[in-house]
Structures are given as structure tokens and as C-alpha cells.
Amino acid sequence: MIRVGDRVKFLNDAGGGIVTRISGNEAYVQDDDGFEIPTLLSNLIRDAGSNMYDQTGYVSEGDDEIESDEILEKKTAEKVEKSTEDIAVEITEFAQRLAVTLAFVLETDSAKTDERRVGIYLLNEGDYFLYYAIGLDILKKRKNIGYGLLEPQMMAQVGSYTVQMLYDYTAISVAVLPFNVQSYAAVSAIEIKIDWSELNLMASSSFQPNEYFDKPAVILDLKELNEIRLKKEALLNATKPSVKVDTPSRQPVKEIEEVDLHIDKIVSPEQLSQLTTSQILEIQLDRFTFALESAIKAKTKRIVFIHGVGNGKLRYEIQKTLRRKYPHLDFQDASFAEYGYGATMVILRK
Question: CATH classification of 1-50 is 2.40.10.10, yes or no?
Fold first, then answer.
């Protein structure tokens, strides 16, 4: 079966190239000169001499279908068994430069989500080898769309999708494990989850000219994003209230709990002076999620989040999160007499 990313030859003509996308029974093949040639799938044959690591873990897209878990697991096992001695790249004796980029390239621009098409690419600009896995998330489930081994100074095309298909999920997750065949500087694995609301793939302004592609794209530095995530988690852990463990008696179930989300109640003045507006909002939303999940586990009846009035951004994001991730929970404006317009009450159980 011909898939996106396969190197192919033309049956009825000379030449060939790499399949960039598939629509119905027609494929688009990019030749070595960069030209994209449309042709029927029946006119193609896979090039048996192509490197199995050139394009791994692709989605073959007719109706945006994703390969079954059984097929993906089988392919993963086959790749892991292949020795790195067969990899035809120059291996650095000591790897120490990690540079990983995730790119969303605007292939077809349209105001309609079922017509706007985005290509997803993973770029390895460093000297590490990278094992990677990319998936689409919804609630606590993840669908694998790409995986494999990415060599230094190489790029993998994960696939081409309509925005409508991507928006059927809530986020994209990327896991990257850096290593080298010989020796390397020890670095942490990268694990990033990006909500689609952070990217806004329906806004043309989100896609910018770049050094990697001829078309506008959203370019994300995964190493930098991972470092920000780790710092944020450390900051949140430092601000979590300590839990008393020496109380033998069982605590009564709380009827109502209050959580103040004003940033000066979460971080110190010194920490606050180093945060941007977007980082402040992220910390407030993380505090909201942590408090909400804790209240659910504690079987609290109601929880009130005090967010203030301000420009309304925090209130909007809280209620959007509740609608998308907790549709089974009811919420409303908290008592005006007690909180004015600056609080939201979530009803956890009746």
C-alpha cells in the first residue's frame, strides 16, 4: 500500500519521488527538483531501495484515517530491531547539541476547517539521534500519528491534515528521546502537550514566513517549550500547600471550597516580577486545574474560583476549560453578594 512519505517510482514514466499527500485514488509526488506531480495511485510502485528511516510513522490519508494500533506496533518492532550500524549518516563522536523543532505548514489556505490543510513536520537540527512519538489527544486518550527514529540534521513529515480533522482532538503531544550511537551529553527527554487553543490554526496570522519552508508556518522550539514547562511545574510545586499527614482522625467532606486565583496569592513578588502576561495566565489555569482535580478526588460538593473581574480573560479560559474538559460538571457565577462579578462556582456533586 502506498502511503504518505513513501519513495516511489512511476510505472508508465521515468522518474519518481516522495509521496507528499494522498486524496482518494490520486497521489501527489514531489520529485528531486521539488516539483509536485499529481498521478493515480495505480501508476506508482514503491522504491525498494529507499531508506526505511526516511519517513516513518506516516498517516495514509484518504478520509484522514489513522493506521491501526496493531500495524503501528508491528512497524515499531521492526524499526527497533534494525541496527543503527545501517544508518547512512555521519555519527558525531560526542553529541551535545539538542535542537528539535515542530512545524505546522499551511499547505492550503481556506476559511473552512474542512478545506484548510496543514502539514506537520519534525526537524532535528542537532547532533543527537531522536526516537520520537507524536499523537493527538482527547480527554485521557491518545491516537498515534507518527513515530520513529530521526537522524541528526534530518526532517520527518508526520502527515498532512485538514484543520477539521485536527480539531476533532483537543491537543497534540510530542515525546522525544535523544541519544547518540557513541557517547553524548545527558539530557532529559522531551514531553510536550500543546492545546490547539494555543496555536489557533484557523488564524492566517498564526502562520509566518520562516527559514525552513517556502510556505508560511507555525514554528515551535520543543526544547525551549519543555524547559518552560519544567520551570512552571517547579514553580507550581513550590506554591502547593503542604499536606498534613499526622492527623489520625478522618476529615469531614467539605461542602464548599474557595480558591483564590489572583496571581499574588500563588507566587511571590520576586517570582511575579519575572513572569510575562501569558505565563501568569498559564500558572493561574494550572492552579485552577490542580484545585479542581483535588476537589473532585476529595468529593467536595462545590468549589468557588475567585478570579476577579479584570479584562475577563481568566474567567473566559476557566469556563472554556470546563465546557471542553469537564462537560459533566455544572458551573455558574458565584454569589454576587459575596464575590461580586469576580468568581465562578463549580458544582461537583448534588
Answer: no
Q: What is the CATH number of domain 65-222?
A: 2.60.40.1600
What does the angle CA 304 – CA 306 – CA 307 come to, to the nearest 5 degrees? 135
CATH of domain 240-347: 3.30.1370.110
**3-state secondary structure (DSSP) of residue 14:** coil
Handedness of CA 133, 3, 38, 155 (dihedral sign): positive
DSSP letters for 211-249: SS-SS-EEEEEHHHHHHHHHHHHHHHHHHSPP------S
Q: Say what the pTM is.
A: 0.49
CA gap 316, 307 in Å, rounded: 10
Dig out the grid coordinates for 162 from the structure: 485538514
pLDDT in tens, 263-316: 888 887 877 888 888 888 888 898 898 889 888 888 888 999 998 888 888 989
pLDDT in tens, 170-216: 899 999 999 998 899 999 899 999 988 788 888 888 899 999 999 99
The backbone region for 64, taken as left when phi is positive above 0, alpha when psi lies in -120 to 50, beta otherwise, is left
Query: What gap in Å lies between CA 27 and CA 255, rounded to an integer?
Result: 60
* Torsion angle of C-alpha atoms 160, 161, 162, 166, degrees rounded to 10: -150
302-306 vs 256-260, strand pairing mode: parallel
